């Protein structure tokens, strides 16, 4: 890795998701790559939800950081492969928990290849209303929790309630 | 199709059909923003609308890139008239039973939920299939949209069951909404030259092949909701071919008026 690329990675590491300030863009899986091109540096980002209002802010933040570094750089948006919560590391999960958000459960990629299309869709929706199994309360760790709403403050989260410590909390939905 | 129709023309029309579906339902559902029956549902509708409008933006951006010239995602959304839209008629209907376009009445959440259910049940299958489109950009958008549409279906199905298998009042309203909207689903399977051409060269999906899977999702949910599957008979709407109900004009007037009053305005 060249020094410039290293410097850009280090600088961009300081940028966080505006909605989830405890995670860096790299930890979120949004910042995919920094590479050297003939005329500077190219930063590759992959958007989360199609309509996520934070994405515009994230792009602006990346641009501004690159500008302040004085490195001729451009930001490239890459859609495929689609962003997935599978890209969040165990460290990222731990930070989410400490912040009060239950991290996504399970691996989407494995669930997606297990069955043929129509069956998969049916299986996914069956049992709706019960929430994902095994969502632990980020405060007391209890698995005795219930989903109160499919959507929370943002599209990526659902509202849950812990039936032991009685605290409501956000769950980052697997995507 | 005229003999001079190219794959680029078909791609543009097909992308517009998908984008218009998303933007029109996104606009409709956003009417609940600030008016939801409970705050959780207010948030749910706002979030679902954001997903739909986000999907529409990605699709319009792709369309604009292929059309070239001065076309942008904004000109496609804000400066086309109702006859140029290619969305299903189902998606432009107001949140209540059959009334003329200028009539005003309370919104009915059962209508909202039943529509979202019927449409999301189709779109999980469409997006699933479009992941294998010969067009890389469309395949990428499909892979993203599938993840979001699964949550939309889950939300709508859950409420459908709660309403259908709920009180006498909620059951009656869910059944009435189903009776009202089911005939509009005939349009899903109606012939469309654009869809046929798109499926023929591997860009699109032949929706008719998805019908058994859609039926299975619908029947499974209706059984759990103790609702009776309404007949899908009568006039077959043609919104995807550009023939719309009067409701689309009112919807677009609200959606487009600001952009048209101040063309090219910047924040």
From TrEMBL, chain A:
Domain of life: Bacteria
Pfam families named in the record: FeS_assembly_P, Zn_ribbon_PaaD
Domain annotation MIP18 family-like: ranges: 6-69
Residue span(s) of domain PaaD zinc beta ribbon: 128-173
Extent of the signal sequence: none
InterPro entries per the UniProt record, alphabetical: Fe-S_Maturation_MIP18, FSCA_dom_sf, MIP18-like, PaaD-like, Zn_ribbon_PaaD
Listed PANTHER family: 1,2-PHENYLACETYL-COA EPOXIDASE, SUBUNIT D-RELATED, FE-S PROTEIN MATURATION AUXILIARY FACTOR YITW
Protein name listed in UniProt: Ring-1,2-phenylacetyl-CoA epoxidase subunit PaaD
Organism: Tepidicella xavieri
Automatic annotation (TrEMBL), chain B:
Listed GO CC annotations: cytosol
Gene Ontology BP terms: phenylacetate catabolic process
InterPro entries: Aromatic_CoA_ox/epox, Ferritin-like, Ferritin-like_SF, PaaA_PaaC, PaaC
Coiled coil (residue ranges): none
A Pfam match: PaaA_PaaC
Organism domain of life: Bacteria
The protein's name: Ring-1,2-phenylacetyl-CoA epoxidase subunit PaaC
Organism lineage string: Bacteria, Pseudomonadati, Pseudomonadota, Betaproteobacteria, Burkholderiales
């Amino acid at each position: 890795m060249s020094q410039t690329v290293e410097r850009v990675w280090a600088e961009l590491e300081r940028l966080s998701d505006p909605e989830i300030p405890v995670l860096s863009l790299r930890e979120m899986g949004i910042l995919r790559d920094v590479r050297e091109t003939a005329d500077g540096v190219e930063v590759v980002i992959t958007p989360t939800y199609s309509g996520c209002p934070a994405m515009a802010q994230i792009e602006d933040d990346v641009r501004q950081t690159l500008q302040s570094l004085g490195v001729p750089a451009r930001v490239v948006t890459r859609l495929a492969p689609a962003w997935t919560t599978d890209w969040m590391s165990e460290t990222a999960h731990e930070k989410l928990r400490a912040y009060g958000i239950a991290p996504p459960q399970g691996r989407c990629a494995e669930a997606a290849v297990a069955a043929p299309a129509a069956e998969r869709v049916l299986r996914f929706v069956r049992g709706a209303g019960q929430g994902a199994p095994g969502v632990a309360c980020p405060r007391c760790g209890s698995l005795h929790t219930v989903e109160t709403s499919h959507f929370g403050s943002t599209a990526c989260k659902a509202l849950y309630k812990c039936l032991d410590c009685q605290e409501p909390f956000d769950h980052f939905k697997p995507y | 199709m005229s003999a001079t129709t190219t794959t680029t023309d078909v791609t543009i029309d097909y992308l517009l059909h998908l984008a218009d579906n998303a933007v029109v339902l996104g606009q409709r559902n956003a009417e609940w923003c600030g008016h939801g029956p409970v705050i959780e549902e207010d948030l749910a509708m706002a979030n679902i609308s954001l997903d739909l409008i986000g999907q529409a933006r990605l699709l319009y951006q792709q369309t604009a890139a292929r059309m070239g010239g001065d076309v942008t995602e904004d000109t496609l959304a804000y400066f086309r008239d109702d006859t140029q839209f290619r969305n299903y008629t189902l998606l432009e209907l107001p949140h209540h039973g059959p009334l003329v376009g200028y009539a005003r009445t309370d919104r009915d959440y059962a209508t909202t939920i039943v529509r979202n259910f019927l449409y999301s049940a189709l779109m999980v299958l469409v997006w699933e299939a479009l992941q294998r489109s010969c067009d890389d950009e469309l395949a990428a958008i499909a892979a993203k949209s599938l993840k979001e549409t699964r949550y939309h279906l889950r939300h709508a199905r859950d409420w459908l069951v709660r309403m259908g298998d709920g009180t006498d009042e909620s059951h009656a309203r869910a059944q009435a909404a189903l009776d009202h909207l089911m005939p509009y689903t005939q349009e899903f399977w109606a012939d469309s030259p654009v869809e046929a051409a798109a499926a023929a060269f591997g860009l699109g999906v032949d929706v008719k092949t998805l019908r058994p899977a859609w039926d299975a999702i619908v029947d499974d949910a209706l059984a759990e909701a103790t609702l009776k599957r309404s007949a899908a008979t009568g006039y077959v709407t043609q919104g995807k071919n550009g023939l719309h109900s009067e409701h689309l004009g009112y919807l677009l007037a609200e959606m487009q008026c600001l952009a048209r009053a101040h063309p090219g305005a910047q924040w």
